[in-house]
Every structure is written in structure tokens, then in C-alpha cells.
Specification:
Structural class: alpha+beta
Number of helices: 6
Distance between the termini: 40 Å
Order of helices and strands: EHEHEHHEEEEHEEEEHE
InterPro entries: F420-0_g-glutamyl_ligase, F420-0_gamma-glut_ligase-dom
CATH topology of the largest domain: 60s Ribosomal Protein L30, Chain: A
CATH architecture of the largest domain: 2-Layer Sandwich
Enzyme class: ligase
Largest sheet: 5 strands, mixed
Pfam family, one: F420_ligase
Protein name: Coenzyme F420-0:L-glutamate ligase
CATH superfamily of the largest domain: CofE-like
Helix content: 25-40%
Radius of gyration: 19 Å
Strand order of the largest sheet: 1-12-2-8-9
Oligomer: single chain
EC number: 6.3.2.31
Length: about 250
């Protein structure tokens, strides 16, 4: 039986644009608990990645298009926010009062294109945070300095909290990966009774993100990174896009 543990990376600073997040993380892991061991997966919240990469925007400085103003009237949302949502999205999936669901340019279907205004630090009024430009590349940039400083190349998962269709509440999912499999495909293998599995695909990276999310929290906890230790996995070449169901397989439209 596989047993795993989740270890918060404590003592991290409030990140700002231009901070060298990979170096700061690797220094903490090289000099204190929990360190890194072979097979560890470092889970990092999207929020600190976006902050360090300068993805913060002041709504007062956003030029609002006519399309955004019209959509803001429908959704009852701030026009500048709607403008940023449209810039980050490839399609609007649902727009009704107080709800704006889009397909993000990265392929995720999510509320407000993942744009968030919570836990932005002092001076965050009227500012919002967008997702990283390329979370998979961000994950790779975090992994390499960790190997240089500790001698261990960890898996890296960048997590974000998502709502889910037909379910109440949010859970953490992987929006960026480097190393661990995104999906483990069990189709064609026998179950314990010898029956051949037809549809089983394990969202491994999402499961790791959800496990770490229970330790990191969603509110005032201030724990933006965790090490998940004890899982068995083989490195591969998948990215977070392997977790996305193609639009042609949309079962609800």
C-alpha cells in the first residue's frame, strides 16, 4: 500500500513581481525542512507564480472595449474585470448575472478566466491576478534550480483552485506540471478481478494538487508551497494539457 505525506514549505516571503521564485524556493528546500528526497513532488500555488511573474493588473488602468461593457451589463461584473477575462479567453461558455464562465486560452473552462483578487498582499485593492502565461514552463523553471541546490530533481505541480460542474465547493487541480504524469491511463489493464478496464484514467497531477491543497488552504493560511512525499511515479513527457478534455468531447453542450 502506498502511503504519502504532505510537508508545507514554511517561511516563504510575500512574493512580488520580479522575485526569483525558483531560486527562493530552492534555497528554502536546500537549507531547511522539509528538504527534498528522491520522488518528491513540489506543489506550488498559481498565486505565487503569477505574482513573481508580474501577472498583477490594476483595474483602473485597463482600457475597456464595447464588447466587455456589454458583457459586464449582462453579468453585473466590473467592466475592467470582464475586459481582462475576454483577453485571457478563447470563448465565452456561460454569461448570466453574477456568473461568467469562459474557456481560458490555456484550455481550462473556468470562472472569470481564473482571475482572482484574494490574498494579494498589502496594496492589493483594485488589483487582480491573472494565471501565468505558461504554467508548464514555469514548473520546469522551478525544478531545475532545486536539482542544482539539493541534488534532487523534484516533480513540480503548479496548482489552482477550481469549481466543478454539478459539485459544491472548490478543490485544487494542476494547471502546470514538470516531471510527474498528468494522467495515468489504466485502460486495457485488468482490475483485481481480471476484468479489462475500459475507461479508467487517473488524474494523477490533479490528485497530487488536491492533497497538497488540504495543507496549503484557501484563506489566511499563507502556505503557498508543499512537498508531497512517498508517492510512486515515473517521470514522463506529459503536460497539464493532457488533463484537458477536448471541446469535441464536451458532454454538456
Amino acid at each position: 500500500m502506498t502511503m504519502y505525506s504532505v510537508h508545507p514549505v514554511a517561511g516563504l516571503p510575500e512574493f512580488r513581481a520580479g522575485d526569483d521564485l525558483p531560486v527562493i524556493l530552492s534555497d528554502h528546500l536546500a537549507t531547511g525542512d522539509p528538504g527534498l528526497a528522491p520522488g518528491d513532488i513540489l506543489v506550488v500555488t498559481q498565486k505565487i507564480v503569477s505574482k513573481a511573474e508580474g501577472r498583477m493588473f490594476d483595474l483602473a488602468c485597463v482600457d475597456v472595449s464595447d464588447e466587455a461593457r456589454k458583457l459586464a451589463g449582462i453579468t453585473l461584473k466590473e467592466p475592467a474585470l470582464v475586459e481582462l477575462v475576454l483577453r485571457e479567453s478563447s470563448a465565452v461558455v456561460r454569461a448570466v448575472p453574477n456568473v461568467l464562465i469562459t474557456r481560458h486560452r490555456l484550455g481550462h473552462v473556468m470562472a472569470n478566466a481564473g482571475i482572482d483578487a484574494s490574498n494579494l498582499g498589502k496594496g492589493g485593492e483594485n488589483r487582480v491576478l491573472l494565471l501565468p502565461e505558461d504554467p508548464d514552463s514555469s514548473a520546469r523553471r522551478i525544478a531545475e534550480p532545486c536539482q542544482d541546490r539539493t541534488g534532487v530533481l523534484p516533480g513540480v505541480v503548479i496548482s489552482d483552485s477550481f469549481g466543478r460542474p454539478w459539485r459544491i465547493g472548490t478543490t485544487n487541480v494542476a494547471i502546470g506540471t514538470a516531471g510527474p504524469p498528468a494522467v495515468i491511463d489504466e485502460r486495457g489493464k485488468p482490475d483485481r478481478d481480471g476484468r479489462i478496464m475500459q475507461v479508467t484514467q487517473i488524474a494523477f497531477a490533479d490528485s497530487v494538487a488536491a492533497a497538497a491543497g488540504l495543507a496549503m488552504g484557501e484563506g489566511p493560511e499563507g502556505l503557498p508551497a508543499c512537498v508531497v512525499r512517498g508517492l510512486e511515479w515515473q517521470p514522463g513527457y506529459q503536460t497539464s494539457s493532457d488533463l484537458l478534455r477536448p471541446p469535441g468531447e464536451d458532454l454538456f453542450r
